[in-house]
Design brief:
By secondary structure, the chain is mainly β. The chain contains no helices and 11 strands.
Length: 117
């Protein structure tokens, strides 16, 4: 069973940067969309950034101009470059890949990002 493995989370001061990575343990066919979501304590999980296959990326208003999503469909990998981090960016970040081949959504286990003020 294919799993998504995330890395790159950690503790950083406000204004700093982190780069999150997510790689599939096996091949995911017909990737339709890659994305990053996040969930802060007491909040619902929210979409941070998404990149559809063959289309432009889109971002939550709160991260526009600071975060950049990129990915490689053939390698089933997705990245999130986070710059100018703010304390309100503190959350568990989850990567997501949707396959049009089997209609399945794959989720990573989550990686903690903590931004100190």
């Amino acid at each position: 069973q294919v799993q998504l493995v995330e890395s790159g989370g950690g503790l950083v001061q406000a204004g700093g940067s982190l780069r999150l990575s997510c790689a599939a343990s096996g091949s995911i066919l017909s990737v339709h969309q890659m994305a990053w979501h996040r969930q802060a304590p007491g909040n619902e999980r929210e979409l941070v950034a998404a990149i559809p296959s063959g289309g432009p990326p889109n971002y939550a208003d709160s991260v526009k101009g600071r975060f950049t999503i990129s990915g490689d469909n053939a390698k089933s990998t997705v990245y999130l470059q986070m710059n100018s981090l703010k304390p309100e960016d503190t959350a568990v970040y989850y990567c997501y890949i949707y396959s049009a081949y089997n209609g399945r959504a794959y989720w990573g286990q989550g990686t903690q990002v903590t931004v100190s003020s």
